[in-house]
Amino acid sequence: MKRTIIDQVSWLGVVDWNRRLFDSFVPLPDGTSYNAYLVEGTEKIALLDTVDPAQKDILLSQLEDVPKIDYLVVHHAEQDHSGTIPDVLEKYPEAVVLTTAKAKGLLMEHMPIQPERIRTVEDGETVSLGGKTLRFLHMPWVHWPETMVTYLEEDKILFSCDFLGSHLATSDLYVVDKGQVFEAAKRYYAEIMMPFRKMIRKHLERLGEMDIAMVAPSHGPIYDSPDWIIDAYRDWTGDKPKNEVVIPYISMHGSTAKMVAHMVSALVDKGITVRPFDLEVTDIGKLAIALVDAATIVIGTPTVHAGPHPNVFYATHLANSLRPKLKFASVIGSYGWGTQAVERLIGLIPNLKVELLDPVMIKGDPGEADLKALDDLADAIAEKHRTL
Length: 388
Ligand code: FEO
Hints:
Elements (H helix, E strand, L loop, with lengths): L2 E4 L2 E8 L4 E2 L3 E2 L4 E9 L4 E4 L7 H7 L8 E3 L5 H4 L2 H7 L4 E4 L1 H10 L7 E3 L5 E3 L4 E6 L9 E5 L4 E5 L16 H16 L3 H12 L5 E4 L9 H11 L4 E8 L5 H15 L3 E6 L5 H8 L2 E8 L1 E2 L2 E2 L1 H13 L5 E8 L5 H6 L8 E2 L3 E4 L4 H18 L3
Parallel strand pairs: 6-7, 7-8, 8-9, 13-14, 15-16, 15-17, 17-20, 20-21, 20-22
Antiparallel strand pairs: 1-2, 2-5, 3-4, 5-6, 10-11, 11-12, 12-13, 18-19
Helix pairs in contact: 5-7, 5-9, 6-7, 8-12
Bound molecules: MU-OXO-diiron.
The site of MU-OXO-diiron has 8 residues, from helix 2.
């Protein structure tokens, strides 16, 4: 189904209601969409992006009534947007791909596209379709190094690809439930964009100089009043963390769970927002969201084969790769007869520029002295948070 945004500008694409994983590890509790857009000038027609190759038949059916495509604008080479390019190029033998030089190389390595079908565009270059002017802005690292976005000058629409998007399947063309989209967009930012937040800040500065009436991303609904999502990105990408502690943990026989419960109470008593995540049941995306703002991570683990529990190992590796703005870290947990869990966990977080606060690893079940050690750690965290 083709949906009109404004005269001569339409949404095409697929709402993938039932997809539950992206990249084989990112949970999609609310599905996602692959948005493509059609911009029809008086002389030329441009298709902006395609869809995931598993859904190509839907896009091709939407194009049945489109007699010609002159330009296929490719913002990003990842397959969820580029995977149907070969089919579109086969259907429209005159169509030329417009993309960055870096994307040209990536596209040819990822799928069968002849180099003569690709024209590279410079940062700031424009292409006129006749009454509709596309301006291409290179924005590396939202999400890959080749990524660009397109600004439709006459209508002030920013086609932002992954940038500012959300994994959300909805029948709404535009944002209706802002709270729902905020959560989905924050999850998307946490899982996909957070590692590149310093570069994204520069792109946000550039957007701040532009007049943007609408943001049309490649996932999730269109922002018809986009200021709030741009402001949210400014907040998320900023350096200042909030007075929040994240506690990813797991417990095998209950000792670590008791320690986490005590720690949560102690921190709450000091006015700190605490988000514990039992890794046996948690949605790892919720943990990623919590890492966007937190100042401190306290990792809770029992000892398995002298090291941390495998689920804790996984969550810690993920936190390290997402590069959140954490300032402080510690480890709490228990062991039966000996442990190297702390050393091994610290070795997993070289990307986190954190100050390590004294860990609390105990033998067996927590006693009075152990709970006191947890209270001391909570005091230390509260004192550090006063410096934020
Ligand atoms: Fe939606 Fe990075 O692809």
